[in-house]
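Entries read sequence, tokenised fold; example below:

***
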Amino acid sequence: MDLLQKSEAAVSAASLLEDQADLMDSMKHCFENLIVIDVGANLTNKKYSRDLDSVVQRARDAGVQKLMVHGTSVKSSKEALRLSRIYPDIIYSTAGIHPHDSKSIVEEPATWYDLEHIAQAQECVAVGPCGLDYQRDFSEPEAQKQIFAKQLQLAIRLNKPLLIHERSAQHDLLEIMDKFENLPPVIIRGFMGTAEEALKYLDRRFYISLTGYLCKDKSDSGVRRLLEDGTLPLDRLLVETDAPFMYPNTRASKLPQHVKTGITERSLLYLHRYCTFQRNEPCSLPAIVEMIAAFMKKTPDEVALATAFNALKLFGLS
């Protein structure tokens, strides 16, 4: 091999090593991201009307691979379905009547058929959020019960998972659900109850979805205890932001120090740069996952992988 050939070979080898280093750096960047799925974001909220593209892109950059946008009324269910068609394979929709909106169906029964039509769409992966909420009186309890039962029937007929919203109404909610056979998978979304209430759901093999409420829970028998004592197993856990609500205040004084230090700088960067108490975003989800992992004494990767797998399996996300 002459001098020129040796020189060309050296340059080629150096170039190959440089390419490999670039590839490793790229892969390292990928692995820095937790791969997570947000099973509850209210992106039809008017707070996102001006910059939704940026909100979705930030979520993707932060590691949120897929988002479920909840429909809580006929109007928002229709809008959630529209978003799922604008952002295919990223956004999936749900169709439901939130307990607060139950009276709208009672007052205008014909609108129920619009909801049924929306729920049948392929992009709509769940029925709900539906259920009972006795903390506020936006709809009378009897109206809530009536519309909840109709949504249970719809979910059974379509064989789509059920997203359940419940506040101070567990007894009545379970009493209604126990009247139905062949219920599809059930997810108690945005759980804020006690460990005792959670056990009643887990005994029925329901799933429980958690939000940034972790930062607000100061009780000895609530969500934090579920995680710390292993009551809530990974194979029954899902995660959501409930954006634009439930901002995870990682600076909360009652948040244990080991949980605060378990949140990576990258997750805090997205949280503090783009999210506020007035407008939470899906890009805050990695921080929520890291807090859950710290409470459970598991690695963030374990929690991210388990919750993503549960979501993919439950909702048939592609």
User: Anything to note?
Assistant: Strands lie at 36-41, 64-69, 91-95, 124-133, 162-167, 186-188, 207-210, 237-239. The two ends are 54 Å apart (CA to CA).
